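General statements about sequence and structure are easier to judge against a single worked case. For one protein, we set the task of working out the structure tokens from the amino acid sequence alone. This step matters because it turns folding into a mapping between discrete strings. The amino acid sequence and the backbone structure tokens for this protein are reproduced below.
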Amino acid sequence: MTDRLALALVELAEAIRAEVRSEAATVASAPDRLLSVDEAASALGLGRSLLYAEIGAGRLRSCRAGRRRLIPAASISDYIARAAEA
């Protein structure tokens, strides 16, 4: 690999990192959206029963609003990140 190509790849990697950081900062400052159980299950590709099992095991945060169980969108992202690490 030539020095010029290596330098271009390093610059590209830095630009991607900067864009990801910028996007993460934007998402972090936005208000969190609450998803229904069906929406969260669909987003994760899980069934309702498994989603409730993950909530019960403490691996997925949720909250109650009256009789409804709602899952913060950030909780979905956290769950995916932890699953990717395992």
